[in-house]
Amino acid sequence: MNLSVGLQVRQSQSLVMTPQLLQSIRLLQFHHVELQAFLEREAEANPLIELAAPGLDPSGEAPFGDASTGTDGDAPPVWAAEAPPGAVTGEDGGAQAFTDATHSGALPHPDDGEAFLAAPRELVRGGAGAGESGFDDRLEGLAEAPASRSAHAVTEIADIIADARERRIAEWVFADLDEAGYCPADWAERAERLALPRAAAEAMLARLQAAAEPAGLFARDLAECLAIQLRRRGRFDPVIAAVLAHLPLLARRDFAALARLTGEDEAGLLDILREIRTLDPRPGAGLGIGAGLGRTEAVLPDVVVRAMANGAGWQVDLNAAAFPRLLVDQRYVQTVLAGEPTADERAFVSRCQQNATWLARSLDQRARTILKVATEIVRRQDGFLHEGVSGLKPMTLMDVAEAVGLHESTVSRVTANKFMATPRGTVEMKFFFTVAIAASDGGEAHSAESVKLRIARLIGAEGPGAVLSDDDIAAALKGEGIDLARRTVAKYREALGLPSSVQRRREMNARRLAG
């Protein structure tokens, strides 16, 4: 066998993902909050990048400046991309206020339980600022959203428990209420960390449950929440206790099983049902409403759709408030170069200038791509804008990708975590992509969302003597030209949170007897 060395020339092609290309792909799928945070990090590392507040400047120029001059000069508006007829461009999308909640609302975990309890400091009622108590950093922002429930809990604990040491324990163990107003699920673990016996922790919890307002606060589950409220009314007895211990049976209106378990007749169970209906299963849900108790977090749409004045189509605009403005400071470059910089300094400035310019272009391309995809969605979903969900047409990512000349994965990134404000409300752009349900008569296919709406309407129109089974619903839909199997009807009904026909019939009978 002979071995030899030779040279060969081959030509090949390969796709290389440059850092700039990867950055552009990430920017496409960023939510506007994530995008703002990313740009702030870039501005910290790059002295040439300047961030301005999202939106148009007073002169009405585009959200992005000219990367070559560092001013809002002659750069074309980012929404001046090609769009199908019916889309008018160049207006501000009408920004909404947006609140980015930054506090978790959770009380801090002490490193040392004994040291935590022995520290000579107390929480101030309301949880906002402790003055000289030394607890400012631990409860900073407790009275701000979304920690308003915890702040209310701290106030209730201070009213109920007078001893400073016990109050501090209760604040640590029980103050982190969930959205319903129930005490934290890990309260037993917190008590154990502080070497608090289980019996003592349960006694402290019972004190809070007995006196806290609104009634039901600090409950561990739904049954206990209802029991607390019934005790306050003097209506808690062994029969009601047995009913609360079997709430799933009550939810299904299975009065026969409840009668066997409680020994109560159907009329008595209906009285109990009427009483339970007057209770509040989520006593903490309203604590975020009102001054000082929290703020509502609004959804900021990326695209705004309005009907044109002449009624000839729809106007599709980018919401300038959702697109941060980035400027490249060329004066900084001139200042550095005028001072006879070293080779390393020149390389650094050149690299920063290149990165900033590329980032500005990527943001501009991101805005153009979002507008292009949104305009195509509006063109295809004209029925939704006129009629609502019933007019929604089946549409896939591939349909839009082929229409706008993009890859399917690009359309997926563009529509991820993006919202569109329409005359029918603000919806996520992913909402418009639904599977097609074949028509039984061979006509135009129906979208899954519109079929769900029809199922909900059929169930909503039921009467006490005309409850539809899944087979009945499938037959009714077939009569409307929608070919849907019974199991698919059941799947859509469950996705809507609607009970079965047996449960609905029991509910109607219970309402009829209770009324």
Automatic annotation (TrEMBL):
Keyword Nucleotidyltransferase (UniProt): yes
GO terms of molecular function: DNA binding; DNA-binding transcription activator activity; nucleotidyltransferase activity; sigma factor activity
Gene3D superfamilies, alphabetized: Homeodomain-like (1.10.10.60), RNA polymerase sigma-54 factor, core-binding domain (1.10.10.1330)
One Gene Ontology cellular component: DNA-directed RNA polymerase complex
UniProt keywords, alphabetically: DNA-binding, DNA-directed RNA polymerase, Nucleotidyltransferase, Sigma factor, Transcription, Transcription regulation, Transferase
Chain spans, region Disordered: 52-113
Stretches assigned to coiled coil: none
Top-level taxon of the source organism: Bacteria
Residue ranges of domain RNA polymerase sigma factor 54 core-binding in the record: 151-332
One of the protein's GO biological processes: DNA-templated transcription initiation
Keyword Transcription regulation tagged: yes
Domain annotation RNA polymerase sigma factor 54 DNA-binding: ranges: 348-506
UniProt similarity note: Belongs to the sigma-54 factor family.
Purpose: Sigma factors are initiation factors that promote the attachment of RNA polymerase to specific initiation sites and are then released.
Protein name: RNA polymerase sigma-54 factor
Species, as recorded: Aureimonas pseudogalii
